[in-house]
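Input/output pair, single chain:
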Amino acid sequence: MADTELRTQMDYVRSRMDILDCVNRYARGQDRLDSELTTSAFHPDAVLDFGVFVGDPAAFVDYFYDLHRRYHHSTSHIICNHVCEIDGDRAYAETYFMVTNNNREGKPFHLGGGRYVDQFERRAGRWAIAVRKCIAEWNADSGGDLAEKLGSLHTDVGRISRDRDDVSYERPMTVPAERLGLRVPV
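Output:
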């Protein structure tokens, strides 16, 4: 095997590991309410669209950590299937997740799930998320609780479809400018 081919393969393997580590670091940061760990998964100028929140990583942490502190004793983000396409210094990933919230009031637990659809960029040798769209796919609970209130707003994030019209095929990923700064009071 030529040195160039070996370097290309090693770069691919390392990039895939760095990207998956980034996704896992985000989940751990969310569960520990560790803002430094959570924001390390993103470039500082990243745009995150979670339906109820659209903005940068620092504002995301402020919004969701406040929500989690008020409504949950703990959370458990579970990372599932993960696919990634690398194209030079840009990569597109789709990661399925489940989240269990240990609620402070009402039902003891909430279980929901969906997908993180991410555009990663490698800048100065570091892979991090540049655009994230959180697609809520399912909610195991019914009733007028917080999960339903927040979940209903995820439809604005992108088209959910069982074909190539799905948001996960968007290249490059964009968030409409009119959505930037959205914060739904909870």
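Residues 3-179 form a domain with the Nuclear Transport Factor 2; Chain: A, fold (CATH 3.10.450.50). The radius of gyration is 17 Å.
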